[in-house]
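User: tokens in, sequence out, please.
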């Protein structure tokens, strides 16, 4: 159940000179070929049956939204459409960070306050700041790296964990808890702790705060939902099936789930670290609103963008050719010679991957979903992102 933070540090292997702009029809046809070719090549090794893509270009009145495949693996299901839902995994973390930053703007907390101030029930972590929870430098290991947690979930994937139960797997002194980490170290535990801070500061549930601040706002998230337990039938009916197909050694405890459709299982193991479902089109709307739109005041957006180096764990102003990978407050940045500096995230759950890429210079967003968690060595979603970029670049759109 290890969460991938898949950095697109080699997003393009070659620079592709722009050519004359093609018609919209020709562009859509080229992108559709990218989808079809990837699905044909990767359906078996990645155990996927569906891909969904949405692209928002600067000045365009509508997204380009395309799909390939069917809603179930093995020839079953129906053709997937742009309206189907996908678990977006750790893309949820930006929503969590945005709530924290909005609370700061409202004067209800600051990101440099400690867990000792907000969550005194965890004295071993009393000196950890909220900022360090969000930028992955807290030293707190991930609960989902606990072998016992994996076994407990695999025994009953319909089980609804509480946040406190999950955090307990990582708390010092508890059986099987891992040692503290140093520097940058990806941790879902930090985001469940942030969830508890949100609930303490607002006297309301995390789910209610998402609804009030984002889902029922002017951002336009018409197909974005959250559950801390199990999704209701009307949401599951709109969700593509997703398959756990990961044989990595650190996922050995999840072996009973191999090859299974996990769509109907509890998502309680993710909560504020990954529990949202959405469409790729809604994810492009969210990315724009987060990076350039009304979600954050200028001071808090600047804090969102404060980076630590993935390599050193130290603060950096920006990623660069020599230090290309960075993590902000629930968002990630990468610099390549071809694309320059971009924001992105690959969120992964047990059966889904949802990738978004934001290109600041061109004010463009690409978001796409695939319906499996494959072996880490088989995950070639980066190549699909490359294909979309190259197609857009060749046509002068990026």
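Assistant: Sequence out:
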């Amino acid at each position: 159940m290890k969460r991938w933070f898949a950095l697109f540090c080699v997003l393009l292997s070659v620079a592709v000179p722009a050519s004359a702009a093609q018609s919209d029809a020709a562009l859509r046809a080229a992108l559709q070929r990218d989808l079809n070719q990837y699905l044909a090549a990767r359906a078996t090794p990645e155990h996927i049956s569906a891909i969904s893509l949405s692209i928002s270009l600067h000045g365009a009145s509508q997204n380009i939204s395309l799909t390939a495949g069917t809603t179930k693996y093995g020839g079953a299901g129906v053709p997937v459409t742009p309206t189907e839902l996908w678990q977006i995994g750790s893309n949820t973390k930006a929503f969590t960070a945005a709530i924290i930053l909005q609370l700061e703007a409202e004067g209800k907390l600051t990101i440099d306050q400690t867990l000792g101030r907000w969550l005194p029930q965890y004295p071993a972590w009393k000196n950890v700041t909220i900022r360090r929870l969000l930028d992955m430098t807290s030293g707190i290991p991930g609960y989902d790296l606990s072998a016992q947690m994996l076994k407990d979930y695999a025994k009953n994937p319909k089980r609804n964990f509480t946040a406190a139960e999950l955090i307990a797997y990582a708390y010092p002194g508890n059986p099987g808890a891992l040692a503290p980490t140093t520097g940058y170290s990806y941790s879902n535990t930090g985001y469940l702790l942030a969830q508890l801070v949100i609930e303490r500061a607002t006297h309301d549930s995390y789910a209610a705060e998402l609804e009030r601040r984002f889902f029922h706002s002017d951002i336009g998230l018409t197909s974005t939902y959250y559950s801390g337990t199990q999704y209701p039938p009307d949401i599951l009916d709109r969700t593509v099936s997703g398959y756990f197909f990961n044989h990595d050694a650190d996922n050995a405890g999840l072996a009973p789930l191999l090859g299974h459709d996990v769509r109907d299982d509890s998502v309680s193991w993710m909560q504020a670290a990954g529990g949202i479902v959405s469409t790729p089109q809604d994810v492009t709307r969210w990315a724009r609103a987060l990076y350039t739109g009304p979600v954050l005041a200028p001071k808090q957006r600047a804090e969102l963008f404060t980076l630590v180096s993935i390599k050193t764990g130290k603060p950096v102003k920006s990623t660069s050719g020599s230090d290309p990978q960075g993590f902000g407050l629930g968002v990630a940045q990468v610099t390549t010679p071809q694309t320059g500096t971009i924001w992105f995230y690959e969120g992964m759950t047990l059966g889904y991957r949802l990738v978004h890429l934001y290109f600041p210079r061109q004010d463009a967003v690409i978001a796409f979903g695939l319906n499996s968690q494959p072996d880490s060595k088989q995950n070639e979603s980066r190549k699909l992102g490359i294909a979309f970029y190259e197609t857009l670049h060749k046509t002068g759109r990026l």
